[in-house]
Amino acid sequence: MTTLAFVALACGLIIGLGAVGACIGIGVMGGRYLEGAARQPELAERLQVKMFLLAGLIDANFLIGVGIAMMFAFANPFV
Predict the structure, then answer these.
(1) Domain that holds residue 26
(2) Is 5 a catalytic residue?
(3) How far is CA 71 from CA 27, 44, 52, in A?
(4) For 4, how many CA atoms within 13 A lie in the half-sphere containing its CB?
């Protein structure tokens, strides 16, 4: 395999595993939010703010991975 093929494989792994991790993280966090809001309904608003803040941070982590993969795809330092 050529270097370009390995870079393409690495880009696919970065984006794919990042997406899977972000989806699992947001799913687990959403489930925990629903459990917490069901146990203490008076804290639902504060928990919701924190949940959306964390969802944005998790999604930002995935988008940083996409940016790095695009850098390797279009401005490949290995070629």
Answers:
(1) 10-72
(2) no
(3) 29, 40, 28
(4) 3
Whether 42 is covered by a domain: the verdict is yes
CA distances from 14 to 8, 18, 20, 52 (A): 10, 6, 10, 24
Distances in Å between the Cα of 53 and the Cα atoms of 1, 6, 7, 35, 76 are 42, 35, 33, 18, 33
First to last CA, the chain: 14
Give the number of other CB atoms < 10 A from CB of residue 8: 16
Chain Cα centroid distance, residue 51: 14
Both structure tokens of 78: 């290995």
Q: Which of 48, 59, 61, 67 is catalytic?
A: 59
What predicted TM-score, i.e. pTM, was given to this entire model? Answer: 0.80
pLDDT, mean of each 10-residue run, the chain (79 residues): 87 94 95 96 94 94 92 80
Domain harbouring 55, CATH code: 1.20.20.10
